[in-house]
Automatic annotation (TrEMBL):
<keyword id="KW-0813">Transport</keyword>
<feature type="transmembrane region" description="Helical">
    <location>
        <begin position="6"/>
        <end position="25"/>
    </location>
</feature>
<keyword id="KW-0472">Membrane</keyword>
<protein>
    <recommendedName>
        <fullName>Sec-independent protein translocase protein TatB</fullName>
    </recommendedName>
</protein>
<keyword id="KW-1133">Transmembrane helix</keyword>
<comment type="function">
    <text>Part of the twin-arginine translocation (Tat) system that transports large folded proteins containing a characteristic twin-arginine motif in their signal peptide across membranes. Together with TatC, TatB is part of a receptor directly interacting with Tat signal peptides. TatB may form an oligomeric binding site that transiently accommodates folded Tat precursor proteins before their translocation.</text>
</comment>
<feature type="region of interest" description="Disordered">
    <location>
        <begin position="102"/>
        <end position="151"/>
    </location>
</feature>
<dbReference type="Pfam" id="PF02416">
    <property type="entry name" value="TatA_B_E"/>
</dbReference>
<dbReference type="InterPro" id="IPR003369">
    <property type="entry name" value="TatA/B/E"/>
</dbReference>
<keyword id="KW-0812">Transmembrane</keyword>
<keyword id="KW-0811">Translocation</keyword>
<keyword id="KW-0653">Protein transport</keyword>
<comment type="subunit">
    <text>The Tat system comprises two distinct complexes: a TatABC complex, containing multiple copies of TatA, TatB and TatC subunits, and a separate TatA complex, containing only TatA subunits. Substrates initially bind to the TatABC complex, which probably triggers association of the separate TatA complex to form the active translocon.</text>
</comment>
<dbReference type="InterPro" id="IPR018448">
    <property type="entry name" value="TatB"/>
</dbReference>
<comment type="similarity">
    <text>Belongs to the TatB family.</text>
</comment>
<keyword id="KW-1003">Cell membrane</keyword>
<feature type="compositionally biased region" description="Low complexity">
    <location>
        <begin position="108"/>
        <end position="129"/>
    </location>
</feature>
Length: 151
């Protein structure tokens, strides 16, 4: 409901007893529960009034449908006219992320024999430069690499 665990609930009860005292606490609980009941009743009456004012074509109207996530789930994903479930089921996220991680780390899907460590900036077994290895240093007169995304 409110993500209140058992320890937090005990702490709230102890604080309530300390603030209101054991004499007034039952009366306070009754007052709070009565107020919550009245608020729920008021909200249900307001919903019924709105439904009756909208007319018979909105008799099945639910206020939860005004939430964009619920609206999309109800009208787009449940009908699945676009074939989204088929697309979602055809996409293997873990395999795709594994391929991306292999590409970033310079690994290929089938390990290839290497002839020793590659020099920094030289092509890795996957064909691109191995950018993850630390460079030894700049040669005299060599400019550091420019990264347009970092500026």
């Amino acid at each position: 409901m409110l993500d209140i665990g058992p320890l937090e609930l005990v702490a709230l009860v102890v604080i309530a007893i300390l603030i209101f005292g054991p004499d007034k606490l039952p009366k306070m609980i009754q007052d709070v529960s009565r107020t919550l009941r009245k608020i729920r009743q008021f909200s249900e009456n307001a919903k019924q009034d709105i439904r009756s004012e909208l007319g018979p074509e909105f008799k099945d109207f639910e206020f939860e449908d005004l939430n964009p996530k619920t609206f999309v789930r109800k009208h787009v994903l449940d009908k699945d006219e676009l074939g989204l479930k088929e697309i979602r089921n055809g996409f293997d996220f873990k395999a795709e992320m594994g391929d991306v991680a292999d590409a970033v780390h310079g690994r290929s899907s089938a390990p290839e024999p290497s002839s020793g460590p590659a020099a920094p900036g030289s092509p890795s077994p996957s064909g691109g430069p191995d950018l993850l290895k630390k460079r030894e240093g700049l040669h005299p007169g060599e400019r550091p690499p420019f990264d347009s995304d970092a500026t």
